[in-house]
Amino acid sequence: TSTPKLGLTSTPKLGLTSTPKPEPTVIPSIVVNNIKSEPPFVGTVFLSPDILTSSDPSSFEILVKVNDEQRKMYDRRYGWINIKPFLFQAEFSDGLIIEVQVNPEFETKEIAEDVALQYLPAVGQLPTYLRKDVDTIWLHNDVEDFGGGNNNLLIHHARGLEYKEQEILEEIFLHEATHTSLDSYHLSSPEWITAQEYDGQYISNYARDNPEREDLAETF
Predict the structure, then answer these.
(1) Residue 89's beta-bridge partner residues?
(2) Neighbours of 38 (CB within 10 A)
(3) Residue 9: what pLDDT?
(4) pLDDT above 70: residue 1
(5) Using H for helix, E for strand and C for coil, what is the string for 33-99?
(6) 130 and 115 Cβ atoms separated by less than 8 Å
(7) Rounded CA gap, 146 and 166, in Å?
(8) How many CA atoms, within 13 angstroms, populate the side-chain half-sphere of residue 51?
(9) What is the CA angle 208-210-213, rounded to 5?
(10) Which residues contact 120 (CB under 8 A, 6 or more apart)?
(11) pLDDT in tens, 32-76
(12) Would you call 10 helix, strand, or coil by DSSP?
């Protein structure tokens, strides 16, 4: 999409009088960068598998089984669904708690627990400010992309195994948790929009193609 241009106004002229006035402070003009060069990256989650690694410290402490109840979940295969998932409570050393909702397609609560435990240490490696608005995790099977937002992290297990094989699971969570815990504060803020306009470029193709949705997460 095209980048909106700034509405630059002319500098008002000084009204000189017979009384000497102090020299006005000179404010340098801000030049908008309109050079449309190709973004340096396709997507920033692929930059390096070592931004976070499986050996880094994690704040995840324990996964507690709780009574299963009906929940509304988002599943990329079907959209919004109302089901009774296997429920757990994930507790972290910084005091944050996340309800983990695992699709009953995993058949037993023990299997659901085992699958959830494959992801929670990586979630615990996120800084507190990226988990502060994560109230729930939706965990399904199948090869579908992860997601963020809705006070949630969305996981599809077969895709997660691919991310683990590529050693970018932690980087995927960095991206998606930005959607969950930073988008609502900054994505529509005048400061962020102004920064986009001054920049005139994007860090990745994904950010460029989805500037109002992905630019913040890609940049973070």
Answers:
(1) 64, 99
(2) 9
(3) 34
(4) no
(5) CCCCCCCCECCHHHCCCCCCCCCCCCCEEEEEECCCCCEEEEECCCEEEEECCEEEEEEECCCCEEE
(6) no
(7) 15
(8) 17
(9) 125
(10) 60, 63, 90, 100
(11) 455 567 999 999 999 999 999 989 999 999 999 999 999 999 999
(12) coil
Provide the token pair at 170: 């932690």
Identify residue 27 by its one-letter amino acid code. I
Q: Is the CB of residue 200 less than 8 Å from the CB of residue 33?
A: yes
Rg of the chain in Å (alpha carbons)? 23
pTM, to two decimals: 0.82
Q: What value does the mean pLDDT take over residues 173-184?
A: 98
Go through 62-97 and write b for each residue having 16 or more CB atoms within 10 A of its CB, e for each that does not: eeeeeebeeeebebbeeeeeeeebbbbebbbeeebe
Mean residue pLDDT of the chain comes to 87
Phi and psi at residue 149, to the nearest 5°: 100, 180
pLDDT digits (tens, 9 = 90+) for 68-97: 999 999 999 999 999 999 999 999 999 999
Lateral strand order in the sheet of 147-149? 60-65, 86-92, 97-102, 136-140, 152-156, 147-149
Residue 36: its pLDDT value, please?
A: 64
Asked if residue 103 lies in contact with residue 141, where contact means CB atoms within 8 angstroms, the answer is yes
Q: Which candidate, 13, 67, 8, places its Cα nearest to that of 194?
A: 8
119 three-class SS: coil
